[in-house]
Amino acid sequence: MSDNRWIRLLGEIARAVLKAFLSDGDRGTSSGEASSRTTPSGTPVPKPGPPATGGRGAPGPSSGNGSYPGDFLGTIRPTYSPDLDGEPDPGEVVWTWVPYEEDHSQGKDRPVLLVGRDGKWLLGLQLTSKDHVRHGEQGGRGGRRWMDIGTGGWDRQGRPSEVRLNRVIRIDPDAVRREGDVLDRAVFDKVVAAL
Question: What CATH number should be reported for the domain holding residue 157?
Fold first, then answer.
């Protein structure tokens, strides 16, 4: 009986390692970062919260200076000033922590188009490679609005991306994990005109 338990546990560990390896490649993360895990009973293990001191590349809804203040609801003053200098700038697609709408203490590392600033915060729109738009028009399910923006260096597999238009995320510049690419100015202008 105990041998069977050990074999089952080893199988679960092997599946978790394989799942982490495959999902890290899809997200473009390094192999040392945590991925979703499960306990031997199959229940999810909660993702760790933000670190106490924060810093570039630290996952979590904040980066050492307090909790996520919530999505930006004001009027965006769009800025296009990309500069691939290692610092995040509007007009760039970057990889960072995006809190879930229903629970800001949890989220996912994903690409985000930076469109402006709100004080110390960057303002961003999340990207996805999932197809939410039908026939190239703006649209989506559940009241979410998406727009096709094509392909770019932010997706290592070269998949077409869509940007979500009706959720503006505040991003701590220190929480940006990496720059992905610069979005073409004409596409950027179409995105901000659709907001």
Answer: 2.30.30
Asked if the structure places residue 30 within a domain, the reply is no
The helix/strand/coil state of 192 is helix
- Let me know if residue 137 belongs to a domain: yes
Q: Is residue 32 part of a domain?
A: no
Give per-residue pLDDT as tens, 38-64: 444 454 444 434 433 333 333 454 444
Claim: this prediction has a pTM higher than 0.85: no
DSSP string, 87-151: S--TTEEEEEEEE-SS-TT-EEEEEEEEEEEETTEEEEEEEESS---STTSSB-STT--EEEEE-
Distance CA 72, CA 116 (A): 11
Domain total in the chain: 1
Which of 117, 81, 111 shows the shortest CA–CA distance to 98?
A: 111
Alpha-carbon span 49 to 69, nearest angstrom: 15
* Within a domain: 64: no
Residue pointed to by tokens 């307090």: 66
The rounded distance, in Å, linking the Cα atoms of 172 and 180 is 17
Q: Which domain holds residue 188?
A: 92-193
**Tokens 């769009």 -> residue:** 78
